[in-house]
Amino acid sequence: MQIYKRLEQDHDKQRDLCEQIKHTRGDSEKRNKLWAELRVELEAHASAEEQAFYSELMKDPKGTDDTRHAVEEHQLMTEQIEVLDNLDMDADVWMKKFEKLAHKVIHHVDEEEAEFFPKAKKLFSDKEAEDMCDAFNERKPAEIEKQELAA
Ligand SMILES: [Fe+2]
Ligand SMILES: [Fe+2]
Fold first, then answer.
1. Where are the domains of the chain?
2. Is the pTM of this model over 0.90?
3. DSSP conformational letter for 115
């Protein structure tokens, strides 16, 4: 498998979790469970993606701007996650802030898939894209573990 397909699998999971959370209410067990899953997924995905994909993309002058843009968005999402973690789930403002994050997540994964991956496909060979997928798969479980320990 090439890195693009693998990242898209995670993106689909993120889209699905965002949609599910929008249908939860208050400080419920369901919202807590889904949010715990999404925040770990978002952080672990972003870290493994930076290490396996963007670190390689950045090496090409044609990939520098996209990399900077993506990493900046990862950072903004981390800040939004921290805000949500510190808010009472029962408060109306929680869902307002969550909708902002979900909007950002969808924009980000859509942009990666529609703009950055097609450009990267021109810069990397099939073999390189497969090696990046291996690197991602190796890294992701460690990043999940790190996030779960931090939670
Ligand atoms: Fe990303
Ligand atoms: Fe991504």
1. 3-150
2. yes
3. I
